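Folds abound. A case:
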Amino acid sequence: MAPRSRPTVRQVRLGTELRRLREAAGLKAREVAGLLSSTSAQMSQVEAGFAGASEERVRRLAAHYACADESLVNALVAMSTDRTQGWWEEFRGVLPPVFLDVAELEHHATFLHEVVITHVPGLLQTPDYARAVFGYMVPELPESELTPRVEHRLRRRAVIECDPPVPYRTVVHEAALRIRVGDREVTRAQLRRILDESEREHVAVRIIPFDTDHFAGASAAMMYVGGPLPRLDTVLRDSPSGTAFLDAESQLERFRTLFRKVERASLDPTRSRDLIHHLAKEL
């Protein structure tokens, strides 16, 4: 099978976890290649996500690495054998690959925790709000690129609208609710949308008001994506240079702690809804 030209983040993660198991076992890639009648180059392709690994190979590798964590091995097997062709595949070749990677991660998530400071969370955005966000990009996007980005963002909501849905908790700063990304009517409709979504049992929206003391977490924006095991969680962080996918255990623990810290600084869901109602009435 020819190497993949561009592996997905999920495929790369499988390879990363296999490499971590090998390194924990104190083995070199060439040693493992010899055990499997393979080559160092082929092992490198698997560990980089450019080549797949069958269930049999994943289990053989785990055995060679003396991995006794059956739950982890089963989770890696599930990643290696997954052939899901989700709705995001319709956008392959239309949108940058990172859009598809985010949607695939959300689809496989066991939970989603998000912190946003200056924008409404993408999973809660209205069409007009999303269009205003993407329409502000420099250089300006042509309609042929703007429309699919908006459609993709709206279709991501499937993870909190499906049956069963993915549990979703988000902490939003009041700044994100007050900034008029669109006009007054767009803002009002967006606040209503957040209120409607917060009615779902599996959705928790918490707000950090402007008058919260000792909140220095303006750089805390992130999405924490739960995996089948804590070890397989992923953190997404956006920056001007693009989206970073973080998965080292030290990073995961840091962002687990950061989310709990930010959540403690927020209003409970009921008081948060009251604040959103108040902001909507002001418009």
Summary: Residues 99 and 152 are 8 Å apart (CA to CA). The first strand starts at residue 112 and ends at 116. The mean pLDDT is 95.
